[in-house]
Predict the 3D structure of the following.
Amino acid sequence: MIVAWLVLAQRQPFEPALREALFNAVSLFSGTGYGSVDVTAWGPFPFVVLFTIGLIGGCTSSTACSVKVFRYQVLFAAIRAQLRRIHAPSGVFPVRYEGRTLGEDVISAVMVFFTLFFLSFTLLTLALALTGLQTRTAITAAWAAIANIGPAFGPEVGPTGAVDGFPLTAKWLMIAGMLVGRLELISVYVLFTVRFWRA
C-alpha cells in the first residue's frame, strides 16, 4: 500500500519506493529501531499505515515490543464470540486461538494488557504535551517509547532528528515509557500494588 502511494501519489521511482517502504515497515514491525527517511514527508496515508504497524508489534515469542500479533488475534476472536452470543444468546461460542479454547483468565489478561497499553500511551502523550512538546510530536514520541519501536515520526523525534532539545522532564517520561513498554506493562504496574509488597 505504501509503495503504491509513493509511486502513484508521490511520483517516486518504483525501486527506491519499494526499498524505503519495506525497510521502514519491517523496522517498525520488528522493533529494530532503524529509520532511513523522515516518513512524514511521504504524506498522511503512509504515516497512518506505519503508525498502525507500530501499534501491532511483532509475533509471539519475538523480542519486539508493542501489543504483538497474538493479542490482536485473541481480541478479535473474543469480539467475534461476543457478537455471536448477542445474535444467539442460547449458543455456546468459545474463544479459540490456534485451535485451542481459551479460558477466561487468558482473555481477561489480554483485555487488561490492551487497556493498560492504550491508557499508558494516552497518559504519556498528555504528560509529554504538558512539557511543551507539540501535539504530533508528543503522540509519536509516546508511541515510540511505549511500543519500543525506535524513532518516531517528525523532524524532532524521527530518524533525521534527535530528542536532545526536549525538556529534561520529557526525556525522563520517555525513559519511563520505554521501560514500561519493554517489560510489557503488567510486570511493572504490579510493583505499584499493595498486595505485591505484602506477599
Remarks:
- Residues 120 and 146 are 8 Å apart (CA to CA).
- The chain has one domain: 2-189.
